[in-house]
Amino acid sequence: MVRRFEGLAEFAAAAGEHLGFGPWHEVTQREVDLFAEATGDHQWIHVDVERAAAGPFGGPVAHGYLTLSLIPLLVREVYSVEGVSMGVNYGLNRVRFPSPVLVGMRVRAGVEVVSVSAGGGGGERQAVVRVVIEAEGSAKPACVAETVVLLVP
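Above: the chain's sequence. Below: its structure in token form.
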């Protein structure tokens, strides 16, 4: 269930709180292939299904950056902030990929609000949100990222 915040002040009050987990999303070969097309990263461990089956992971794996790019999809199922006209990606403080995501695995995001602070002169807020992407059946997370988002009222 999506947690809805009734504005930036209510969201800021959640700093230090884990907001929960979103639903599972299956990573498909089609997503991996489309990501390869978009980025030009056609490494065989991602796109050559037969060769990858005999490779170190036993099958094709999603690009680490594909896993990272799933954050908007996965996080919107965890929380939303009302009264915000837009959220702008400001950057990342830290990103790690502790374990691979094999094609066919399901992933989900756990979200923690690290901090919310003044972000500019127009009432904007800068939120630091820690996102942990879990891969079903894996002992380690697939991705741990500290995202920085500018929230504009």
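The radius of gyration is 17 Å.
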